[in-house]
Amino acid sequence: MIPNEGTVFFATIPPITQEQINRFGDLHGTDGPSHTDPEYAKNSMFGGVIVQGALVMAPIFDIGRRASGMGENTNFSVETKFVSFSRPEEALTVRAEVVASSPDRVELSYTCATSEGRAVQVGTLVCEPG
Amino acid sequence: MAGRVLAFEDFTPGHTFPTTHYRISADDNRAFRQTIPFEAFRDDSERPLPAPVEAQAAAIHPTLVGSFQPQHAVFGWPAGVIHAREKVQTFLPVVPDEMLASTVSVLDCSERKGRKFVVLKIQIDKVDAGQTALIVERTLVWPY
Protein backbone atom coordinates (compact mmCIF):
# COMPACT_ATOMS: atom_id res chain seq x y z
CA MET A 1 0.00 0.00 0.00
CA ILE A 2 1.37 3.40 -1.03
CA PRO A 3 1.74 5.68 2.03
CA ASN A 4 0.07 9.08 2.08
CA GLU A 5 1.97 12.33 2.14
CA GLY A 6 2.83 13.22 5.72
CA THR A 7 3.17 9.61 6.89
CA VAL A 8 6.20 9.20 9.13
CA PHE A 9 8.32 6.09 9.50
CA PHE A 10 10.94 5.40 12.13
CA ALA A 11 13.75 2.90 12.20
CA THR A 12 16.14 2.08 14.97
CA ILE A 13 19.72 1.10 14.31
CA PRO A 14 21.18 -0.51 17.43
CA PRO A 15 24.78 -0.01 18.60
CA ILE A 16 27.24 -1.59 16.17
CA THR A 17 29.98 -3.94 17.35
CA GLN A 18 33.60 -3.62 16.22
CA GLU A 19 33.19 -7.05 14.62
CA GLN A 20 30.26 -5.79 12.51
CA ILE A 21 32.26 -2.71 11.49
CA ASN A 22 35.22 -4.85 10.47
CA ARG A 23 33.04 -7.29 8.53
CA PHE A 24 31.19 -4.47 6.79
CA GLY A 25 34.53 -2.85 5.97
CA ASP A 26 35.90 -6.07 4.46
CA LEU A 27 32.86 -6.53 2.24
CA HIS A 28 32.24 -2.90 1.34
CA GLY A 29 35.85 -1.76 1.01
CA THR A 30 35.55 0.83 3.78
CA ASP A 31 38.14 -0.77 6.01
CA GLY A 32 40.26 2.29 6.82
CA PRO A 33 41.87 2.54 10.25
CA SER A 34 39.41 5.21 11.42
CA HIS A 35 36.87 2.39 11.43
CA THR A 36 38.88 -0.73 12.12
CA ASP A 37 41.91 0.22 14.25
CA PRO A 38 40.87 1.54 17.68
CA GLU A 39 44.41 2.61 18.59
CA TYR A 40 44.88 4.56 15.35
CA ALA A 41 41.40 6.06 15.61
CA LYS A 42 42.00 7.16 19.21
CA ASN A 43 44.93 9.29 18.08
CA SER A 44 43.21 10.58 14.94
CA MET A 45 41.09 13.69 14.47
CA PHE A 46 38.05 11.58 15.40
CA GLY A 47 39.33 10.62 18.85
CA GLY A 48 38.02 7.07 18.49
CA VAL A 49 36.48 4.59 16.09
CA ILE A 50 33.71 5.95 13.87
CA VAL A 51 31.09 3.88 12.07
CA GLN A 52 31.21 3.91 8.26
CA GLY A 53 28.72 6.40 6.84
CA ALA A 54 27.71 3.78 4.30
CA LEU A 55 26.82 1.32 7.06
CA VAL A 56 24.45 3.87 8.57
CA MET A 57 23.07 4.73 5.13
CA ALA A 58 22.50 1.12 4.01
CA PRO A 59 19.21 0.53 5.89
CA ILE A 60 17.68 3.52 4.07
CA PHE A 61 17.14 1.33 1.02
CA ASP A 62 15.41 -1.34 3.08
CA ILE A 63 13.30 1.20 4.92
CA GLY A 64 12.29 2.73 1.58
CA ARG A 65 11.34 -0.63 0.14
CA ARG A 66 9.18 -1.44 3.15
CA ALA A 67 7.71 2.05 3.56
CA SER A 68 6.86 2.63 -0.10
CA GLY A 69 4.94 -0.62 -0.39
CA MET A 70 6.25 -0.99 -3.94
CA GLY A 71 7.52 -4.51 -3.54
CA GLU A 72 10.35 -6.42 -5.05
CA ASN A 73 11.42 -4.31 -7.98
CA THR A 74 11.62 -0.88 -6.39
CA ASN A 75 14.11 1.51 -7.93
CA PHE A 76 15.74 4.08 -5.67
CA SER A 77 17.25 7.48 -6.01
CA VAL A 78 18.97 8.40 -2.77
CA GLU A 79 20.91 11.50 -1.90
CA THR A 80 22.61 11.59 1.48
CA LYS A 81 24.83 14.14 3.14
CA PHE A 82 27.04 12.85 5.95
CA VAL A 83 26.86 15.80 8.33
CA SER A 84 28.53 14.13 11.28
CA PHE A 85 29.86 10.77 12.41
CA SER A 86 28.58 8.18 14.85
CA ARG A 87 30.34 5.96 17.34
CA PRO A 88 29.85 2.19 17.50
CA GLU A 89 28.15 2.40 20.89
CA GLU A 90 25.57 4.96 19.74
CA ALA A 91 22.11 3.74 18.79
CA LEU A 92 20.63 5.74 15.94
CA THR A 93 17.10 6.63 14.91
CA VAL A 94 16.01 7.25 11.34
CA ARG A 95 12.96 9.45 10.84
CA ALA A 96 11.58 9.37 7.30
CA GLU A 97 8.59 11.44 6.26
CA VAL A 98 6.68 11.01 3.03
CA VAL A 99 6.84 14.40 1.29
CA ALA A 100 5.28 13.36 -2.02
CA SER A 101 3.24 10.33 -2.91
CA SER A 102 1.64 8.86 -6.00
CA PRO A 103 1.22 5.28 -7.24
CA ASP A 104 4.40 5.55 -9.28
CA ARG A 105 6.57 7.69 -7.00
CA VAL A 106 7.08 8.03 -3.25
CA GLU A 107 9.55 10.61 -1.97
CA LEU A 108 10.77 10.57 1.61
CA SER A 109 12.87 13.12 3.45
CA TYR A 110 14.90 11.59 6.23
CA THR A 111 17.24 12.33 9.09
CA CYS A 112 19.37 9.87 10.96
CA ALA A 113 20.29 11.05 14.45
CA THR A 114 21.76 9.92 17.75
CA SER A 115 19.58 9.57 20.84
CA GLU A 116 20.73 13.07 21.86
CA GLY A 117 19.29 14.41 18.61
CA ARG A 118 22.60 15.05 16.83
CA ALA A 119 22.02 14.49 13.11
CA VAL A 120 24.58 12.29 11.39
CA GLN A 121 22.91 11.98 7.99
CA VAL A 122 20.22 13.91 6.17
CA GLY A 123 18.82 13.09 2.78
CA THR A 124 16.05 12.26 0.40
CA LEU A 125 14.90 8.95 -0.97
CA VAL A 126 12.73 8.52 -4.04
CA CYS A 127 11.12 5.11 -4.64
CA GLU A 128 9.66 4.16 -8.02
CA PRO A 129 8.36 0.85 -9.34
CA GLY A 130 11.02 -0.98 -11.33
CA MET B 1 44.06 -5.20 -5.98
CA ALA B 2 44.37 -1.45 -5.35
CA GLY B 3 46.65 0.57 -7.57
CA ARG B 4 48.89 3.45 -6.59
CA VAL B 5 47.75 5.61 -3.67
CA LEU B 6 46.50 8.83 -5.18
CA ALA B 7 46.90 12.35 -3.83
CA PHE B 8 44.35 15.08 -4.54
CA GLU B 9 46.57 16.49 -7.31
CA ASP B 10 46.46 13.15 -9.14
CA PHE B 11 42.76 13.53 -9.97
CA THR B 12 41.65 15.20 -13.18
CA PRO B 13 37.99 15.94 -13.87
CA GLY B 14 36.83 13.91 -16.84
CA HIS B 15 39.33 11.12 -16.30
CA THR B 16 37.92 7.61 -16.49
CA PHE B 17 39.77 4.68 -14.95
CA PRO B 18 39.87 1.32 -16.75
CA THR B 19 36.72 -0.76 -16.41
CA THR B 20 36.99 -3.68 -14.00
CA HIS B 21 34.79 -6.72 -13.44
CA TYR B 22 33.53 -8.44 -10.33
CA ARG B 23 30.84 -10.72 -8.95
CA ILE B 24 29.13 -10.74 -5.56
CA SER B 25 28.22 -14.09 -4.02
CA ALA B 26 25.05 -14.95 -2.12
CA ASP B 27 27.19 -15.69 0.95
CA ASP B 28 28.77 -12.23 0.89
CA ASN B 29 25.36 -10.64 0.39
CA ARG B 30 23.98 -12.56 3.36
CA ALA B 31 26.96 -11.61 5.52
CA PHE B 32 26.63 -7.99 4.43
CA ARG B 33 22.95 -7.84 5.35
CA GLN B 34 23.80 -9.21 8.80
CA THR B 35 26.06 -6.21 9.45
CA ILE B 36 23.19 -3.73 9.10
CA PRO B 37 20.57 -4.67 11.67
CA PHE B 38 17.61 -2.35 12.11
CA GLU B 39 13.92 -2.38 12.79
CA ALA B 40 11.48 -0.08 10.99
CA PHE B 41 8.08 1.13 12.16
CA ARG B 42 5.30 3.33 10.93
CA ASP B 43 4.66 6.13 13.43
CA ASP B 44 1.07 5.08 14.08
CA SER B 45 1.84 1.40 14.63
CA GLU B 46 3.78 -0.59 17.17
CA ARG B 47 4.22 -3.40 14.68
CA PRO B 48 7.48 -3.46 12.69
CA LEU B 49 7.15 -3.06 8.94
CA PRO B 50 7.23 -6.47 7.27
CA ALA B 51 10.65 -7.79 6.40
CA PRO B 52 11.47 -8.37 2.75
CA VAL B 53 10.26 -11.55 1.14
CA GLU B 54 12.89 -14.09 0.19
CA ALA B 55 13.30 -12.82 -3.36
CA GLN B 56 14.11 -9.31 -2.12
CA ALA B 57 16.56 -10.59 0.45
CA ALA B 58 18.28 -12.64 -2.25
CA ALA B 59 18.98 -9.61 -4.46
CA ILE B 60 22.36 -8.04 -3.79
CA HIS B 61 21.97 -5.07 -1.46
CA PRO B 62 22.39 -1.80 -3.43
CA THR B 63 25.01 -0.55 -0.94
CA LEU B 64 27.10 -3.65 -1.63
CA VAL B 65 26.68 -3.33 -5.40
CA GLY B 66 27.87 0.28 -5.22
CA SER B 67 30.55 -0.37 -2.62
CA PHE B 68 34.07 1.06 -2.47
CA GLN B 69 35.50 -2.17 -3.92
CA PRO B 70 35.43 -0.93 -7.55
CA GLN B 71 37.53 2.06 -6.42
CA HIS B 72 39.99 -0.28 -4.68
CA ALA B 73 40.31 -2.11 -7.98
CA VAL B 74 41.64 0.94 -9.80
CA PHE B 75 43.43 3.11 -7.25
CA GLY B 76 44.45 3.32 -3.62
CA TRP B 77 43.82 6.17 -1.22
CA PRO B 78 45.45 7.36 1.97
CA ALA B 79 44.08 6.96 5.49
CA GLY B 80 41.93 9.91 6.47
CA VAL B 81 39.71 10.16 3.38
CA ILE B 82 36.27 11.29 4.56
CA HIS B 83 33.00 10.27 2.94
CA ALA B 84 30.97 13.50 2.66
CA ARG B 85 28.08 12.84 0.33
CA GLU B 86 26.54 10.05 -1.71
CA LYS B 87 23.94 9.90 -4.46
CA VAL B 88 22.76 6.49 -5.57
CA GLN B 89 20.40 5.61 -8.38
CA THR B 90 19.34 2.01 -8.90
CA PHE B 91 17.94 0.81 -12.20
CA LEU B 92 17.92 -2.98 -12.03
CA PRO B 93 18.40 -5.54 -9.24
CA VAL B 94 21.63 -7.52 -9.17
CA VAL B 95 21.53 -11.25 -8.47
CA PRO B 96 24.28 -13.30 -6.84
CA ASP B 97 27.26 -14.26 -8.99
CA GLU B 98 26.29 -12.27 -12.06
CA MET B 99 29.17 -10.54 -13.80
CA LEU B 100 29.30 -6.79 -13.22
CA ALA B 101 31.43 -4.16 -14.93
CA SER B 102 32.44 -1.12 -12.93
CA THR B 103 33.65 2.14 -14.42
CA VAL B 104 34.98 4.85 -12.11
CA SER B 105 35.35 8.38 -13.42
CA VAL B 106 36.23 11.73 -11.90
CA LEU B 107 33.38 14.22 -12.07
CA ASP B 108 34.96 17.10 -10.16
CA CYS B 109 37.86 18.19 -7.97
CA SER B 110 37.67 21.38 -5.97
CA GLU B 111 39.00 23.12 -2.88
CA ARG B 112 36.57 24.92 -0.60
CA LYS B 113 37.36 26.40 2.78
CA GLY B 114 40.68 24.58 2.80
CA ARG B 115 39.12 21.18 2.13
CA LYS B 116 39.89 19.12 -0.95
CA PHE B 117 36.81 17.52 -2.52
CA VAL B 118 36.88 14.73 -5.10
CA VAL B 119 33.60 13.71 -6.74
CA LEU B 120 33.57 10.28 -8.37
CA LYS B 121 30.99 8.60 -10.55
CA ILE B 122 30.85 4.82 -10.26
CA GLN B 123 28.71 3.10 -12.87
CA ILE B 124 27.88 -0.56 -12.40
CA ASP B 125 26.69 -2.41 -15.49
CA LYS B 126 25.23 -5.90 -15.80
CA VAL B 127 27.51 -7.52 -18.35
CA ASP B 128 25.17 -10.19 -19.72
CA ALA B 129 22.14 -7.90 -19.91
CA GLY B 130 24.16 -4.97 -21.26
CA GLN B 131 22.24 -2.65 -18.93
CA THR B 132 23.16 -0.35 -16.08
CA ALA B 133 22.29 -1.61 -12.60
CA LEU B 134 23.34 1.33 -10.49
CA ILE B 135 25.15 4.66 -10.55
CA VAL B 136 26.83 6.23 -7.53
CA GLU B 137 28.02 9.80 -7.28
CA ARG B 138 30.40 9.88 -4.32
CA THR B 139 31.94 12.96 -2.74
CA LEU B 140 35.11 12.36 -0.75
CA VAL B 141 37.31 14.77 1.19
CA TRP B 142 40.97 14.08 0.55
CA PRO B 143 43.46 14.62 3.40
CA TYR B 144 46.25 15.90 1.13
The most extensive interface, with participating residues per chain, is:
A-B, 49 and 45 residues
Structural class of chain B: alpha+beta
Structural class of the helix and strand makeup of chain A? alpha+beta
Query: Superfamily at the CATH H level of chain B?
Result: Hotdog Thioesterase
CATH class of chain B: Alpha Beta
CATH architectural arrangement of chain B: Roll
**Helix-strand topology string of chain A:** EHHHHHEEEE
The rounded Rg of chain B comes to 17 Å
Give me the number of helical elements of chain A.
5
Output the helix-strand order of chain B.
Answer: EHEHHHEEEE
Number of strands of chain A: 5
| CATH topology grouping of the domain at 8-16 and 51-129 in chain A | Thiol Ester Dehydrase, Chain A
Unreliable stretches of chain B:
none
Q: What would you call the shape of chain B?
A: globular
The rounded Rg of chain A comes to 16 Å
Q: Could you give the distance between the termini of chain B?
A: 22 Å
How large a portion of the residues of chain A is in β-strands, by DSSP E? 35-45%
Strand order of the largest sheet of chain A: 1-3-4-5-2
Put the structure in a nutshell.
The complex is a heterodimer of chains A (130) and B (144). By secondary structure, chain A is an alpha+beta fold.
